Each structure stands twice: as C-alpha cells, then as structure tokens.
Amino acid sequence: MKNHVYINEIGKFVGQEIVLKGWLYNKTHKGKLYFLMLRDGSGLIQGVVFKPDVTDAVFEACEKLTLESSLMVTGTVREDKRAVGGYELQIKDVQIINIAGEYPISPKEHGVEFLMDNRHLWLRSSRQFAILKIRHEIIKACRDYFDSNGFVLIDAPIFTPAACEGTSTLFETEYFGEKAYLTQSGQLYMEPAAAAFGKVYCFGPTFRAEKSKTRRHLTEFWMIEPEVAFMDLDGDMDLAEDFLVHIVTRVLENRQEELKILERDLKPLESVKKPFPRIHYDEAVKIVKEAGLEFIDGNDLGAPDETAISEKFDRPVMVHRYPAEVKAFYMKNDPQDPGRALCVDVLAPEGYGEIIGGGQREDDYQTLVNKIQKHNLPMSAFEWYLDVRRYGSVPHAGFGLGIERTVAWICKLPHVRETIPFPRMLHRLTP
Amino acid sequence: MKNHVYINEIGKFVGQEIVLKGWLYNKTHKGKLYFLMLRDGSGLIQGVVFKPDVTDAVFEACEKLTLESSLMVTGTVREDKRAVGGYELQIKDVQIINIAGEYPISPKEHGVEFLMDNRHLWLRSSRQFAILKIRHEIIKACRDYFDSNGFVLIDAPIFTPAACEGTSTLFETEYFGEKAYLTQSGQLYMEPAAAAFGKVYCFGPTFRAEKSKTRRHLTEFWMIEPEVAFMDLDGDMDLAEDFLVHIVTRVLENRQEELKILERDLKPLESVKKPFPRIHYDEAVKIVKEAGLEFIDGNDLGAPDETAISEKFDRPVMVHRYPAEVKAFYMKNDPQDPGRALCVDVLAPEGYGEIIGGGQREDDYQTLVNKIQKHNLPMSAFEWYLDVRRYGSVPHAGFGLGIERTVAWICKLPHVRETIPFPRMLHRLTP
C-alpha cells in the first residue's frame, strides 16, 4: 500500500506521491478543475483535480462527492505559500469510501440548540476543532506542570458518602442500598494524600446539580486540584500564579494556529505574566462600589462584581481574605484577623470571573471540630478527615482550577458549552 | 529562612546545612543517639541526633516525638552508601510541629477491612506509596503515548442518557426530572470524535454497579480509550501492542525503586516485547480445554479461562474474533467469517486476565440499524450514533484499557483495591 500520510506531516513529503484518507470539507468546480478541500482530523489541505491528469471515472467521482463524504486520494504534494497550510495536493486518484447524506451543518448560521443537538457532527467544524485542541493543550499543560514539579497524581473518588458543601446541589445515586453522591471536589481527599506524598493533585470530572442556566455553568466539569503540605496562603498564591503563567505560555507557544482560527486577540494573553496583583477582599469591595455596583458588606463576590474587579487589571487578579463566613468550613482563619479566611480566588481577565478557588486549610484539630459543629455537619462523617489533624498535622494549602472556565477565557468564548466535547447542562443530556 | 529541601533532591546538598519538613516514620534510641527515620512524601532519610551536638531541648524533643508526628529538622547532609537512599542527615535542630496521637497503623499485621477503613492513613505506608507512584507513572505513560502520537484528547461525558451495554449494571441518577446513567465507556462518543479529529482518546472514570466481589472488580475505575479513523482490527492490535510495551518500558525505566519495594519479579515485565502472540478465539478455546477446564463452545471466556490462556505465554496475548453473539452490538462482523466479531481482548500475563478490550466498529449504516433492532435497543437513542455512518462513514477501531487492572498486573498485586487511592467496591464507599 502506498504511503498514508496525515495532513499535519505533509510538509515532509513535498514532491512525493502520497495517500490521504479523510473527508470532503468543501468543493468547488471550474471547467476542467475540481478543488477538493480535504480534512483528516490533523489539518486541512486543498487537492486539485485537473481533468487531463485523471481518468474519466475519477473526474466523475469528484462530481458525485458530497460534503463530508469519506475518501482516499492519491496525489503529489506541492508547496504553495498561498494555500491553506502552505501545501497543495495534485490529485491523481480518488477513491470514494462513503457518500455522505445531505450534511445538516452548513456554513450558514444555525441556532445554538440545533448545533448542540448535533454536537457529534459540530465537532467537525474548524472552530470547534480549534477550541478542543486548545482544551487538550491546556489539560496537558496542567498535568505536565505538576508532574514535572514533584507532585503525585492521586485520583479522588467520584462516589462520596457525604457532602463537601451542603447537599442541595449534589447528584445522588443508589449505591447497593446506601446513598452515594457525585463528588463536587477532591479536596478533602487530597489533604490526607498530601500528608502521605507531600505534594499531590487530582484531576477529574466534578458535578454540580445547579439549576442555574448561565454562560459559566455546566453540571459536569473537570477540575484540577493541587494540595501541598507545609504550604501557606502566600505559597498557594505563588503556586497559582506560576501555574497559570505556565498554562497560558504553553497555549501561546503551541496553539497559535488554533488561536488564529478563533480570531483571539493575543495581547491580553501575552500580558499574563508574573506578578499578578494580590488584593485584599476589602480592596476588591472598594473597586466594586466604585464601579457603581450595589454591594452588601460581608457578602461573597458575585459574577458582576468579579467582572468589575477583573476589568481593573490586565492579568489575572488574586483576591484574598474573604470573610470566613462566606467560605467553606475547612478554611483556616487568619490569625491576624480571625474574621477572615486564609483563602484566595483568582479572577480571570476580560470578565471571565473566578477560575481558581483555594486557600490554606484549618490544621488545628479542636478548631476544626468546632467548625464542623458550628456548620451542623455530622461529625462521624468527618472522623477520617480529622485524622489528618490527629496524626502529624501540618500547615497545608491548595486550590482548584476549573478547566472549562479556563478554556472559555483563553479562547475568549461567550459560553462554556463549547469548551467541552459533550457538554452537560440543565436540559442538556444529549448527545 | 534556611533552605527547605525535599528528600529526593538531597543528593545535591552534600556537606550543606538544610531544612527538612516531614513526619517521623520510625525512631530508635541508643544512649546518646537518636535515629530518626523521616519521610516527607518524596522519600525517606535517616537523621542522626547526637546529644553533644544539640541543646538539651532538642534531645528532649526527640524523646517526645511519636510516630507520624510532624516536624522540621535542620542538619547537614552526609553521603552514606549503607543508608536508606544513600544519604544521612546529621541533625542540629528539631522543631516539633504536631505530636501525633497513637498511630493506628503499626508494622504488625492488620486485617484488610481495618486498613481499608483507614485508607487515608494507609497511604503513608511504603507499599501503598510505591503502588500509587507506579499508578501515576502508568497514567502518565498512557497520556504521553497518545499525546505524542497525534491523538487528540476528547473527554467523554460521565452522564449518559442511554445504556451502552444493558442497564442492569448502571448507576442511575435524577437529572432535573430525567434519568441519567453514569458512563461505562466513552467509546460511543469517541467514534464521532474520531470522524472529526482522526485519532482521539478519552481518559476518565467509568462505573459499573456490579454486585460481584472479586479481586478484579471496582465500581469506579479509570479507563483510557483510543479510537482511530481508517484503522482496522490488525491496526488496532498493532496499536494495543505498541501501547502496552510503551507503558511497561516506562515503568521499568522510571520506577525501579518502587518495584523493588514491592519485591516485584522484573523478568515477566522485561519480556513484554513485541510481537505479542495473536490467537484466534478457537485456538484460545483449545487451550482452555487442554487445560482441563469445562467450556461450552461459543461462550465468552471467563476469568479462569483467561488465566489458563495467559499462562501459556510469557507476554500479553491477544485473543481475536470471538463469536459475535458474546460481543457488543457495535462490533463489526468479520466479512470472511460473519459469525465472528472483529474484536480483540488482550490478556495480561501471570493470570491477570483481560486488561484491554476492543475491536473494529460496524461502519455500515444498514447493518448497524439491523443490529440495534436485533438487540432490542431503542433506535431513537442511537440516531446520533448512526450519524457517524450517515455522513462519511469510514472503517474505524479502538480499544479500552482498564488502569486498575494494569496497575495490579504491573505491581503484581493480589487485589485491585490497592491500585486506586480511594477504592469503591460493593460495601465500600468510605473513606
């Protein structure tokens, strides 16, 4: 069999005869010429069929080819600076594998619901292709960062017996006569893991049964959560900062082409450099009020508040020391200012809001017991978690980064639904 | 602050004074000497406290230290070939962070249920440490393999509307008034993704509500599933073979120390080289019968059958072309022998059974429609899946590798429960 080559490697075969296997992305016809735009999942290339060069059967095959039909073509690679990708294929033979029925997605505008119903086909469009390649790059950058910095991957369980932050937004399932809940965060599991491995992370799907229908919410989303023993809030902010710079740098290095397809303005990404501004909650509230937004003191920051804050900076901004009351029970209070939690939220620029939430954990046994009681949580469910404080407790901290919101920001998408191959939302469980 | 160093980097600091932060793993006392075995998650090192070298307070601190207490020590690094890890720390100062209560896990034998109840602490033992470091290496090797071979990561959804292979072993959840099921495989989603991206993979948790209590079953386990357009069964076997050799080679290269802790015999791993034997189902059945096992012709291979087959070979064995009736509806039938499926199971050596299942998918629209009908599956649930055959169908194939079984095999563990940080099984939902 002849040399089957992928389009993204075609530059190595200039002047050679090769075989491409793929799908027809576009077709134009001018007299004795057919221009076949081909895609094979690795890229796009234009193939040229010139009638005198091919048999009548091949030229007829070109006529028959519909959009998204699958085919195998044989041809010679030519360099052509004007062509998509810089190369062109002079086609000698076309073998049809499957003639596609009338393809439902056309370059014309489709409604979002229609595209979402056809998500399995929509993936073939160049925009979705670019987004998901960037998603892959981001995920790989995340893992590579922790893998090369001495972190051990400790997958957190999906089935959990108790709730991390209340039960109202949990998905529940029967578990052989018991109730199990789908995880909302691996953090509680990362803490004992950090006491065993020093530096750990988990990366997996997490679930939230929220009825909110916003551009930031999915019911199923991926989260990466590092946790480090002997790290405090300052160290946590250093880590978050270094990590985000790494991610953005990697996308800029390796996904220029895809960012171009998305027409992403690169300036805001290029300014994601250390140091990020670190502002106290009180300062953040001041910005919110100055922006003319109504704000009740002591509240958590809402989406419009976050947008107002992030607009003041050219890079991600870290807001630390929220009122302890609006944060989870496991956060450590600031010894200098006990009403505040040693926590940090990182807000993405350009109005994308919170992409990281984290902080230092309460490491004192009795204080944590008191907090569990104060929050009316069942003590028995947390005995194992308290063990981390019983047996060699140490200061420790960590955070969680939401992948989909990060993809939305880096790609500058209007909605998270395009950031994951098969999004799950309120009223959206298919395909 | 003095130089905080991790134990696995300590060789760079010979002769220097450094700070270690960690936990007391073991302690012995001889007259004017304390030997403190320290762990910090990156390794173990022995620290020596010599009374004349330290203040009385430091020597008293050593007395107070209980197992798993957390501490910070300052000392000078010395090379010592006889020592664990090759280095020793001459301790000058000890700062206690937290005195641990009586640690429940001791070197004495504990029952499995006790250890599983204390999984969050059990992780600190050297054996669990070694296993989970190898798990991490395997997962990284899997991802690196596909990432560096042109595959695009396409995360499959966890919530699915319909069943892939029957509903009896599915976990179910309420999804805003609908029923959703937790995925058992991402394959159906990988097929349209392969038609978009050519070569794809997904890697995530999958779920099976099986009541079986065997050494091979978890209710929640991780699976990596590649899918490739224009690949047939032979190509699928080539891929599986190359992939497994890559994984084993990486573990041998990077995890010698951990394999040693597990006292793993390396010979069987070192013989995992290409080519793997590829045997027809009929030949496999012959081996089963020759081994004296009862076998009903046409049945699927059970665990004892797989063990008998794998024992005949020194490396993974690929069994192909099972009767179509025992395999899933989406498998393509062999055109040369229509009663057989173009499928392959890869059986691990040393009795570990199936670690990979895969094959070529049915790519003909009408044949697939007939199969869905024959299996009494609701056609409407598969319309999107049929679209892959309607719009540019191509031959395609893939497989799924179960991570936990692979870890069990490579580490040679008696049970999969030790292969995942927080195992979920029948009657096991905590910690």
Describe this structure in words.
The structure is a homodimer of 431-residue chains. Chain A is an alpha+beta fold and 431 residues long. Chain A has 2 domains: 3-98, OB fold (Dihydrolipoamide Acetyltransferase, E2P), CATH 2.40.50; 117-418, BirA Bifunctional Protein, domain 2 (2-Layer Sandwich). Helix content of chain A is 30%, strand content 27%. Chain A has helices at residues 56-64, 112-117, 119-122, 126-147, 187-197, 233-254, 256-261, 267-270, 281-290, 303-310, 365-374, 383-390, 403-411, and strands spanning 17-30, 33-39, 44-50, 70-79, 87-98, 152-153, 159-160, 172-175, 178-182, 199-207, 220-229, 278-280, 317-320, 333-334, 337-341, 343-348, 353-360, 396-402. An 8-stranded mixed sheet of chain A has the order 6-10-11-18-17-16-13-12, sandwiched between helices. In chain A, strand 16 (343-348) and strand 17 form a beta hairpin. The radius of gyration of chain A is 26 Å and the shape is elongated. The two termini of chain A are 37 Å apart. Chains A and B meet through strand 1, helix 4, strand 6, strand 7 and strand 8 of A and strand 1, helix 4, strand 6, strand 7 and strand 8 of B.
Strand order of the largest sheet of chain A: 6-10-11-18-17-16-13-12
- Name the biggest interface: A-B, 93 and 93 residues
Q: Assign the CATH superfamily of the largest domain in chain A.
A: Bira Bifunctional Protein, Domain 2
- The tally of helices of chain A reads 13
SS-based class of chain A: alpha+beta
Helix content of chain A: 25-40%
Broad shape of chain A: elongated
Q: Note the beta-strand portion of chain A.
A: 25-35%
The quaternary organization reads as homodimer
Radius of gyration of chain A: 26 Å
**What is the second-level CATH architecture of the largest domain in chain A?**
2-Layer Sandwich
| Biggest sheet features of chain A | 8 strands, mixed
Low-confidence stretches of chain A: none
In the CATH hierarchy, the third-tier topology of the largest domain in chain A is known as BirA Bifunctional Protein, domain 2
Please, how many domains of chain A?
A: 2
Average pLDDT, all residues of chain A: 96
CATH class of the largest domain in chain A: Alpha Beta
**Number of DSSP strands of chain A?**
18
